[in-house]
Design goal:
Layout lengths: L1 H13 L4 H8 L3 H9 L6 H11 L3 H5 L7
Helix pairs in contact: 2-3
Length: 70
């Protein structure tokens, strides 16, 4: 999902966070988070929910079904 990767990167940079910091907040490894941002790997549903909550956006926004964040 290229749109997910792009949005994760955008949201992280907007908050001036490192990939390591986000991974720690989400309880996942740096390597896993990096792969999500590059589109090499897709997160499981529970991880997607954690991401949406962490970034305060809807799941639909994260996966590209909507352009509105909420």
């Amino acid at each position: 999902m290229l749109i997910l990767a792009e949005r994760l990167s955008l949201l992280r940079k907007e908050r001036d966070l490192t990939q390591k910091e986000v991974g720690q907040e989400l309880g996942i490894s740096l390597n896993s988070y990096q792969r999500y941002e590059t589109g090499e790997r897709e997160p499981t549903a529970p991880v997607l929910v954690k991401m949406a909550r962490f970034y305060h956006v809807s799941l639909d926004y994260l996966v590209g079904l909507k352009d509105e964040r909420q």
